[in-house]
Amino acid sequence: MRFRLSYFAFLLAGPAAAEGVQIVNPYAAGSTTDLLARALAPGMQQRLGAPVVVVNRDGAAGGIGTASVARAAPDGTTLLFAPAYVLTVLPTVRPNGGYGAESLIPLCQTFENAMVLAVRADSPWHGLGDLVAAAKAAPGGIRYGHQGIASIPHLAALEFADRAAIQWQDVPYRGEPAVATELLAGRIEAAALVAGSMNGRPELRALAIFAPARHPLLADVATAKEQGFDMAPASFGGLFAPAGLPLAERDRLAAACLAAGGEPAYAEAARRGFQPTEYLAGPGPFTARIARDTAEKARLLQRIELPK
Q1: pLDDT tens, 167-211?
Q2: Which residue in 102, 158, 169, 250 has a CA-CA distance of 20 to 30 Å to 193?
């Protein structure tokens, strides 16, 4: 995705420029989204001509911070930096979370995290074909871990099982570090992980990456499509605003976001965060992608028993 950002230059004056902007990250300080939000803020501040600060309001899997932005005035001074998950999944998983999927509007996609299926480095499986053959030989006998019920890695594994026509046992954990620990201990045979979790982990082997193309930092890992499974579920996201934001203000903020996201400083933070080569999208493509993802996630969510 490439943009002629000069087209937007005339838009960068408005209420947000006059009053400053608070970007809410609904996860803890030091998280991937936090680091990316803080890398984006200086570039936006330069273009808006007013302070842009990042505030952490974590809790409820991102729901607390998201709800706070959904309740904010739609004037461009309070924004959300989060995965699309907070709109495509959380309103279903937590229907009493204080907001709905229509409560926020997408401004600018700024990141995308691919998923992988991983095993221990000493596993006899070297690709999806090996895993599928083993699963079909012993239906329900393979255990795979993920970071929690209805998480993106969990939903990615469900989609793969549908495409591969296999049955296996899912084992939820609280966070990816626990998943990797249990995989290495041999208490599960496979794991659905965010691709960045493979960084610096030679004791793990990725059987496939769910992405449109191979990742430059995992160049030897074939995509699922290359192995016969045309799917690429991802955790993507970026900047959102409260619903009701005037169109002109949306365009101003989107322009600042796209320009800041294209700067070398943000590109380096994205590279360190295991982002793909192309991670930026404007409000139109971002909105359309969220709509497609919502429909797909709704289908998968019908298959699982959601936590009470």
Answers
A1: 999 999 887 888 999 999 999 999 999 888 888 889 999 999 999
A2: 102
In 176-263, which residue ranges form alpha helices assigned H by DSSP? 176-185, 247-261
Count CB neighbours of 232 within 10 A: 18
Q: Could you name the CATH architecture of 113-227?
A: 3-Layer(aba) Sandwich (3.40)
Cβ pair 189, 123 in contact under 8 A: yes
| Domain limits, CATH 3.40.190.150, in the chain | 5-112+235-301
What does each C-alpha distance from 180 to 10, 69, 160, 265 come to in angstroms?
A: 48, 33, 20, 31
- Per DSSP, 26 falls in state S
Q: How far apart are CA 248 and CA 288, in angstroms?
A: 19
Q: What is the CATH number of domain 5-112+235-301?
A: 3.40.190.150
| Cα 298 from Cα 302, distance rounded (Å) | 6
On whether the CB atoms of residues 248 and 31 are closer than 8 A, the answer is no
The set of residues, in sequence order, having a beta carbon less than 8 Å from that of 40 and lying 6+ positions away, is 23, 81, 110, 239, 257, 260, 261, 266
Question: Taking the CB of residue 256, how many other CB atoms lie within 10 A of it?
Answer: 30
Please check whether residue 184 is in contact with residue 190, taking contact to mean a CB–CB distance below 8 angstroms.
Answer: no
**φ and ψ at 159, to 5 degrees?**
-65, -40
Torsion of CA 160, 163, 168, 169, to 10 degrees: 50
Q: Output the 3-class SS for 60-110.
A: HHHHHHHHHHHCCCCCCCEEEEEECHHHHCHHHHCCCCCCCHHHEEEEEEE
Q: Could you give the CA distance from residue 290 to residue 56 in angstroms, rounded to a whole number?
A: 23
**Number of residues that make up the chain:** 308
pTM for the whole structure: 0.83
Compute the 3-state secondary structure of the chain and give helix, strand, coil in percent, each to the nearest 5: 45, 20, 35
- Give the model confidence (pLDDT) of 102-116 as tens digits: 999 999 999 999 999
**What residues does CATH 3.40.190.10 cover in the chain?**
113-227
